[in-house]
Design goal:
This protein has 427 residues and is of the alpha+beta class. 20% of the residues lie in helices and 38% in strands. The chain has four domains: 97 residues, Immunoglobulins (Immunoglobulin-like, Sandwich), CATH 2.60.40.10; 90 residues, Immunoglobulin-like (Sandwich); 86 residues, Immunoglobulin-like (Sandwich); 99 residues, no CATH class. The termini are far apart.
């Protein structure tokens, strides 16, 4: 019985020792990041160590010949080619190699703060940096309202070795299989393009494309926000009314997101069911018993999505009696005035043409009669006489025409003249 008791105590003691050792190992372990690093010649290389032990920090280097040496200890002056930093809580230390050279290639580094970290390897390569203007993000929102899809493209040009491009949504990395990776099979031009189907959960998401690699200096990224507000249009058969009329307005929304509420306003004051009738989940309203003092008021609609995105539109209503009738009267006045002016012009032209035709007809008749007299042919229905003193034709003979006391037929040597109008007619 006693043996069993001691055996039981021993088991609990061993379990306690194992747990304590495990906790001490986990808490006391010093870690280093990154474990492998590539930089271009002339660039900087930084490593960070974390430790929960409040001990003295030190850094070590292992060269390509596996020679191990201490390069810095807390409290001593650093080598000019290096930079060291310990945070205020002493739980983190950063080591930076300034202006790396090919001599730094394939060297290893580790740190100590009570416990020793793993070793990290530095690789220094010859290449070209990615221009600071890259990467560049583009988005095609043309199909967003109809197909709930957005095509996003992340582009980069240059940089060697070619940087990698990775998409993140709200800071979380997107799986590679969601992307369509395209390039020109070289290290010059390349891009990542992928199509996202928008849902309520991602309507406010921010998509970030980040470039990574030795050719990238610092944090080079670009972002696209798909938080596009709804497109709202108010539709109404008319915005004019007479006193006592009703007007109906429909709020038409184009958006891939779910619309959870419609807010109607009059001059930015909320409309309620006491002064309006709501239809179709509040997307349509009827405002009744409008009065003349309602003219000039602004009717507005604000469509709101589940995440708070909103779009709005507004129209102005007008009193039909004042505005519409005046406009119609002005239009009628212009049209009638134009018709009257055109008619007067036509009548004037008609009278002038008739007068001209009548004058030409009179002149032609007189000439014909004169010609008949000169040739000895009598004029039907016309009496004429020849004065006794001029009863014989001579070089200068006058024939008064009885039908027209003011008209005189003059005979000259070689022609006949009626009232001084000479007509070359043979005698």
């Amino acid at each position: 019985m006693l043996a069993c008791y001691y055996e039981f105590r021993l088991r609990w003691w061993l379990l306690f020792v194992a747990i304590s050792y495990y906790n001490c190992f986990v808490v006391a372990q010093t870690t280093i990041q990154p474990l492998n690093l590539q930089v271009l010649v002339g660039g900087s290389a930084s490593f960070v160590c974390n430790s929960a032990e409040n001990k003295t920090w030190s850094w070590y280097k292992v060269d390509r010949n596996f020679n191990d040496s201490k390069i810095w200890e807390e409290g001593t002056n650093p080598i000019p080619a290096y930079a060291f930093f310990v945070d205020g809580q002493r739980g983190k230390s950063r080591f930076t190699i300034l202006n790396t050279t090919l001599d730094d290639d394939e060297t290893q580094y580790y740190c100590k703060c009570g416990s020793t970290s793993n070793k990290t390897t530095l690789e220094v390569i010859v290449g070209t940096k990615l221009d600071k203007s890259y990467p560049q993000c583009e988005a095609d929102f043309t199909s967003l309202n109809t197909k709930n899809k957005v095509t996003m493209t992340c582009r980069a040009n240059g940089g060697y070795p070619r940087p990698s491009l990775q998409w993140y949504r709200n800071g979380e990395i997107l799986a590679t299989q969601e992307d369509i990776v395209s390039n020109k099979n070289d290290d010059v031009a390349y891009f990542y393009e992928f199509t996202r189907e928008m849902t309520v959960q991602v309507e406010t998401a921010v998509y970030t494309c980040r470039a990574d690699g030795p050719a990238v200096e610092g944090n080079q990224n670009c972002s696209i926000s798909v938080a596009t507000p709804p497109t709202v249009t108010i539709i109404a058969s008319t915005t004019y009314f007479n006193a006592g009329d009703s007007l109906e307005f429909a709020c038409i929304v184009m958006s891939p997101w779910n619309i959870v509420d419609y807010k109607w306003t009059v001059n930015n004051q909320s409309l309620t069911s006491t002064n309006a009738i709501f239809k179709n989940d509040k997307s349509t309203i009827i405002i009744s018993h409008l009065q003349s003092e309602d003219a000039g008021k602004e009717i507005g609609c604000n469509a709101i999505t589940s995440s708070g995105l909103n779009g709005n539109d507004s129209v102005i209503i007008s009193l039909f009696d004042i505005d519409q009738k005046n406009n119609q009267f002005q239009l009628i006045t212009i049209v009638v005035g134009g018709v009257i002016a055109l008619a007067l012009l036509c009548v004037t032209l008609f009278l002038l043409i008739r007068q001209r035709q009548k004058q030409n007809r009179t002149n032609k008749t007189t000439v014909l009669r004169t010609t008949s007299i000169a040739q000895g042919a009598p004029l039907d229905g016309q009496d004429f006489c020849i004065s006794e003193e001029n009863s014989a034709y001579g070089n200068n003979t006058s024939f008064p025409i009885s039908g027209n006391p003011w008209a005189t037929l003059h005979h000259y040597y070689d022609h006949i003249d009626v009232n001084g109008d000479q007509e070359n007619v043979p005698r």
